Amino acid sequence: MIDHVLISEEAIASRLAGLAREIDAAYGGGEIRAIGVLKGSVFFLTDLLKRLKSPVSVDFIQVRSYTGTQSAGNIQLVHDLSMDIEGHDVLLCEDVIDTGLTLRRILELLSSRRPRSLKIAALLKKQLPENADLAADFLGFTIGPDFVVGYGLDVDERFRNLPYIAVWNPEK
Ligand code: IMP
Ligand code: MG
Catalytic residues, which ones? Predict the structure, then answer.
């Protein structure tokens, strides 16, 4: 069901090194409160944060928005943050911006808690009209509309542990 490798392990590692430099430069040594959106962003978040020189704390949030490959349009808060973000510089780490619905809802929720700043680091963004107005402050790769798996991304909880990102094809 893996059609072809879209982004290799080496390409991911090299892009993350660049992203880490961009993030360090943007925060100028200030403390970052990194928030991972469970579960997909975990691989991206840990590899990215290991490369940062900035002081960083880590927390997680989990929402549910998808069953299989269909966007449900609604999100449900499954696991909330364990730390307060008021007055903190928050960096929200997301695996993929697809329609952007999930990210918009999470941004609304986090903004209401009055962080000092709220920026987005996304590993992938699909090039779609629906998410055109939703810019990631730090973006790994822009990809096409295909459904992808690996490096944290799943289809019904499978394939998250692939070290690369691949296009998924149920026919294959
Ligand atoms: P959105 O709300 O449509 O932006 O979708 C966000 C969530 O759907 C992501 O955080 C992923 O968990 C999941 N998702 C969207 N596209 C893909 C994909 O191509 N592969 C795996 N998961 C995806
Ligand atoms: Mg998923």
Answer: 98
